[in-house]
TrEMBL record:
<dbReference type="InterPro" id="IPR055414">
    <property type="entry name" value="LRR_R13L4/SHOC2-like"/>
</dbReference>
<keyword id="KW-0812">Transmembrane</keyword>
<keyword id="KW-0677">Repeat</keyword>
<dbReference type="InterPro" id="IPR053211">
    <property type="entry name" value="DNA_repair-toleration"/>
</dbReference>
<keyword id="KW-0433">Leucine-rich repeat</keyword>
<dbReference type="Pfam" id="PF08263">
    <property type="entry name" value="LRRNT_2"/>
</dbReference>
<keyword id="KW-0732">Signal</keyword>
<dbReference type="InterPro" id="IPR001611">
    <property type="entry name" value="Leu-rich_rpt"/>
</dbReference>
<dbReference type="Pfam" id="PF00560">
    <property type="entry name" value="LRR_1"/>
</dbReference>
<comment type="similarity">
    <text>Belongs to the RLP family.</text>
</comment>
<keyword id="KW-0472">Membrane</keyword>
<keyword id="KW-0325">Glycoprotein</keyword>
<feature type="signal peptide">
    <location>
        <begin position="1"/>
        <end position="24"/>
    </location>
</feature>
<dbReference type="InterPro" id="IPR003591">
    <property type="entry name" value="Leu-rich_rpt_typical-subtyp"/>
</dbReference>
<protein>
    <recommendedName>
        <fullName>Leucine-rich repeat-containing N-terminal plant-type domain-containing protein</fullName>
    </recommendedName>
</protein>
<dbReference type="InterPro" id="IPR013210">
    <property type="entry name" value="LRR_N_plant-typ"/>
</dbReference>
<dbReference type="Pfam" id="PF13855">
    <property type="entry name" value="LRR_8"/>
</dbReference>
Length: 370
């Protein structure tokens, strides 16, 4: 222990250090945090001004420790939220931080939560050594300017439940190891520069309830294995370059409530099973190259808060069964090649002409009479 090297220090001060040290974080954890702070710059709020003293478990902003071992378990720094430090400064409700995430963070080997989120200016890569933190449950680096790749070994994080890397500049492919994250519930990689395909065995992520991959440059097809995901409630692959047909099996998923495949390059017809799914509340297939008729498969259990099929090559009539749907909130069938009489019924009472804009020959309320 380094205590004996303090013998030049006044006795009272030394005693204070020793008694404090009983409950203090280990010097190695403290040093790892100081190395982290030395490679970050946060000029407005003074967050790192609180990172002083020997005990990094006490009053270091954003740091929490295990009460028994005094090892650092949480690093939680959010630049945009209800966070009190943002409120009390009277600054705008968003912070700004630059610099990089120092790999020294990986020396905190009891870390369960790492949140360095919404600071906009943090650059550099995600340290690949994060994939060797065995207890990590939450990794949330949303809203920075991180670049480079997702660590190849990310799949080692067997306790990880939340992986949020959205709104950065991360490139490369989704590592194939990602499907090994057997505890993962929430995956958000939206709005990055990811290329390549969604791994074919993505459906191995059995615990996943939200898969948000929108706003990248993903190619390939929608993996059929996704239909095997019994807890998936929210799938967003919008604004990518995904091709091929929509797997009909998606219509059989138990809890899928939101399916957003908008702004891709999907072709073929809309599978009847998907449109007729009674669990889907939000379905967005807008801005693809879908063709054929809209399947006439709606019924009294159809309940759509939003149904957006706009900007495709759909033809034929607006299906009559849509008027028997229990609820259709926002409907957009515009910019297709539909033709015929718009059905009447409660789901149509509140719809505006814009829902049917730019088709070939639709007529009836809310458009002109036939
Ligand atoms: C779905 O899961 C079953 C059982 O785990 C497996 O045998 C099958 O290959 C999976 N299907 C797809 C398309 O991945
Ligand atoms: C559906 O997706 C398109 C393209 O991604 C988007 O522009 C549109 O706003 C979405 N529709 C709804 C109702 O959210």
């Amino acid at each position: 222990m380094g205590i004996f090297s303090f013998n030049a220090i006044p006795l009272a001060f030394l005693l204070a250090i020793i008694s404090g040290a009983v409950n203090a974080c280990p010097p190695s954890d403290r040093e790892a945090l100081l190395a982290l702070s030395s490679s970050l710059k946060e000029p407005y709020l003074g967050i790192f001004d609180s990172w002083k003293g020997t005990d990094c478990c006490s009053n270091w902003y954003g740091i929490s420790c295990d009460p028994t071992t005094h090892r650092v378990t949480d690093v939680s720094l959010r630049g945009e939220s209800e966070d009190p430090i943002l409120q009390k400064t009277g600054h705008s409700s968003s912070g700004y931080m630059t610099g990089t995430i120092n790999p020294s963070i990986c020396q905190l080997d009891r870390l369960t939560t790492l949140i360095i989120a919404d600071w906009k200016g943090i650059t550099g890569e995600i340290p690949s050594c994060l994939a060797s933190l065995p207890n990590l449950r939450v990794l949330d680096l949303i809203g920075n300017s991180l670049s480079g790749k997702i660590p190849d070994q990310i799949g080692n994080l067997q306790k990880l439940t939340v992986l949020n890397l959205a709104d950065n500049k991360i490139n490369g492919e989704i590592p194939s190891s990602i499907v090994q994250l057997s505890s993962l519930k929430h995956l958000d990689l939206s709005n990055n520069l990811l290329t390549g395909e969604v791994p074919a065995n993505f459906g191995n992520l059995k615990m996943l309830s939200r898969a948000l991959l929108s706003g990248n440059q993903l190619t390939g097809t929608v993996p059929i294995s996704i239909s095997n995901m019994s807890r998936l409630a929210d799938l967003d692959l919008s604004r990518n370059k995904i091709q091929g047909q929509i797997p009909a099996q998606l219509g059989k998923m138990k809890v899928l409530a939101t399916l957003d495949l908008g702004s891709n390059m999907l072709t073929g017809e809309i599978p009847p099973a998907v449109l007729g799914s009674t669990g889907l509340g939000i379905l967005n297939l807008s801005r693809n190259s879908l063709e054929g008729n809209i399947p006439d498969v709606f019924g009294p259990k159809s309940y759509f808060m939003a149904l957006d099929l706009s900007f495709n090559n759909l033809k034929g009539p607006v299906p009559g069964s849509l008027s028997s749907a229990k609820f259709v909130g926002h409907l957009d069938l515009s910019h297709n090649h539909l033709c015929g009489t718009i059905p009447v019924g409660t789901p149509f009472d509140h719809l505006e002409a814009s829902s049917f804009d730019s088709n070939d020959c639709l007529c009836g309320n809310p458009l002109k009479t036939c």
